[in-house]
Structure prediction request, 304 residues.
Amino acid sequence: MEKFRKIAVLAGGISTEREVSIESGRNVADALESLGKYEVVRTVIDADSLEAMPEDVDAVYIALHGGWGENGGVQTALDALRIPYTGPGAEASRLAMDKIASKERFDACGVPTAPWCRISEGARPPFPFPFVVKTARGGSSIGVHLAKDVSSYEEALRMCLKLDSAGVIAEKYIAGREATVGIISGEALPVLEICSPGGWYDYEAKYLSDRTRYEFLKEGPLAADLKRIALDAYRSLGCRGVSRVDFRIGADGRAYVLEINTSPGFTSHSLVPKAGMATGLTFAEVCEKILLAAEFDAEKGGLA
Prediction:
């Protein structure tokens, strides 16, 4: 007997990542249906609520990106209903979504991360140009800018404050390579290096460009180090299920965690399914592995 039978795949939402989420949700739903084991309910939501979701589902696959889907909101709502769901719980999701909170946790737990500071309008960070300016609660590289001079910094800060008035951070730019490590249920997947046009992995390079290349690192000291640090970061926030840890690697070979994504994409360009398939699984089997790890927070369930 299958652990779950009727599955709601949640997608859409009202964040800036809605369109990416809809594509992820469609791909996940197609994959789970192809296995012939599940009744899949495609649930596109247009508000921060579960009103559009059927009440009799056995589990929820969260394909929401950004906003309510990753800040602990939908996780809290599903805990209250005692419905198992994919990915980390509410508190880990909240921490990971808030780059200020996650950076503070990384620093406290000894997880190497790029030097950073919180900034506000009119302030100048203590880093030489170029440096990175990003919203504290953005995703999909939306609200991430490389400030090369005063003019581009002021424009980046203005755009970030428009997206997220509650928090903007500046981060020292680590010149070097970019990599990512997917994790499913505490197992680090093969390490992917991201080779993007111009060396800057923005929204276009992530979702639209066919020139961005993804290459698996050979097993060795660097790959082992990235996996170890990724798991340390994952545990430091209390993650479970699926997550993706993003890195910059300096010219000296030192790795720095940029952030953790607790609802990684499942689009044609997405990295967790690529890494999962490198272990010998099909796309559908990667989705199923994530689904079968679904759970809810029993201590918080039923409180709403």
